[in-house]
Amino acid sequence: MEKIKVMTLFGTRPEAVKMAPLVKELEKCEVIESIVCVTAQHREMLDQVLELFKISPNYDLNIMKEKQTLTGITTRVLEGIEDVLDKEKPDIVLVHGDTTTTFAGGLAAFYKQIKVGHVEAGLRTFDKYFPFPEEMNRKLTGALADMHFSPTTASKSNLLREGVDEETIFITGNTVIDAMEHTVEENYVFENNRLNEINFEDKKIIMVTAHRRENWGEGIKNICEALKEIVEDNKDVELVYLVHLNPIVKDMVEEYLGNVERVHLLPPLDTKETHNLMNRSYMIMTDSGGLQEEAPHLGKPVLVLRDVTERPEAVEAGTVKLVGTNKKAIISEANTLIRNINEYEKMSRAINPYGDGNASKRIVENILYYFNMRENKAEDYKCE
User: Fold this and answer.
1) Which of 74, 155, 348, 356 fits a disulfide with 122 by CB distance 3.0 to 4.6 angstroms?
2) UDP-N-acetylglucosamine 2-epimerase domain spans which residues (predicted)?
3) How far apart are CA 295 and CA 282, in angstroms?
4) Which residues are designated catalytic?
């Protein structure tokens, strides 16, 4: 029997976390030949995920450069993957989400008239500059895609409004929930010993990440000033801020929070450390997209340090609240969750709308259906 040749392409840590369980599911399918190509848009952080999930790429474009630009990433992906596509001639290339690797990889496959499958398709803020460049990366990839694997009903609706053929849209849930089944451990001991020294039992630990491009400058400054006041006003609170390595972010965070008592500034952690820190924390404050999906799965309220989100389902479900970068708003919403147990429990007990751990299985089944190797589509994911 001739196999379907499926190439997965990714290059950053968030992509890798969400594609790893899908790669594993593809490898289990007897009628699929799985090929993994990484761009290494983020070298070190990508490698951590590959090691965690024991994935050995067939191709590594290794494109990362110091002070890389969006133009440079795009052109290096386009040029780097061309020979790979010519050699392997896959039946379909799977890309994920909204990175520059995603858009450039989808475009490269289109140029070769190779089918494109878009994992985590249909998320929208409807503002092309927020988040930048992710919103347009995602929309442009959607225009190139032949198969759209939407995590939720809402993301499918976005695609339908844009004129996408409903027959090409498959609601799967989000693969990040699949990934967390492999990373979160009840009695986890951290590799970073500073985390093992934190009193998670008696203190309310707030995990923080904030580094998005649109928050550089005044946004990060406001966030840091708010965090400082929150800690100083709540003696039972400690912060663990995972500080992005970009000097634009790192220098400002260290300036405002470097000497503040009960604030722990740590470099980015690998995926397993991050998921287990999240699991042990009281709440999450972030401008990340992925954490808005991950934290609710663990029953952790999330305050989103952005004005818009392409993930409105969690806001509607009540697990996530948009607070932006206004200092007073951040302090007010954080203090409510710290001091009002009823408000905290209302958010922590809300249903996570993003998945049941079977998204990767649904994607594989739908690929088989698309290529006439299965009679029916996989049943759409429905949030109960």
Assistant:
1) 155
2) 24-367
3) 10
4) 98, 120, 134, 211, 213, 244
Q: How many CB atoms lie within 10 A of CB 61?
A: 22
Output the pLDDT for position 250.
Answer: 86
Q: Quick one: how far is CA 222 from the chain centroid?
A: 24
Predicted confidence at residue 1, as pLDDT, reads 66
Asked whether the beta carbons of 104 and 77 are under 8 A apart, the reply is: yes
Contact predicate 10/345, CB 8 Å: no
Q: Which two tokens stand for residue 231?
A: 């800690």
What are the residue ranges in the chain where pLDDT is below 50? Answer: none
Between β-strands 283-286 and 204-209, what pairing exists: parallel, antiparallel or unpaired?
A: parallel
Q: Can you say how many angstroms the Cα of residue 197 is from the centroid of all Cα atoms in its chain?
A: 28
The chain-wide mean pLDDT, for the chain, equals 94
CA angle 288, 191, 285 (to 5 degrees): 25
Helix axis angle, 327-339 relative to 341-348, nearest 10°?
Answer: 90
Q: Could you give the count of Cα atoms lying within 13 Å of 280 in the half-sphere of its Cβ? A: 25
Cβ atoms 171, 151 nearer than 8 A: yes
**Could you report how far apart the first and last alpha carbons of the chain are, in Å?**
38
How high is the pLDDT of residue 277?
97
- Residue at 307: amino acid letter: D
Report the amino acid identity of residue 183.
T
Domains of the chain by range and CATH?
4-176+356-371 (3.40.50.2000), 193-349 (3.40.50.2000)
- Position 309 scores a pLDDT of 86
What is the Cα–Cα distance from 372 to 148, expressed in whole angstroms?
A: 17
The whole-angstrom separation of Cα 8 and Cα 78 is 15
pTM as predicted: 0.85
What was the pLDDT predicted at 43? Answer: 86
For the four alpha carbons of 119, 123, 127 and 130, in that order, the dihedral sign comes to negative
pLDDT at 122: 97
Contacts of 289 (CB under 8 A, 6+ apart): 14, 98, 131, 134, 309, 310, 311
Cα–Cα distance between 6 and 31 in angstroms, integer?
10
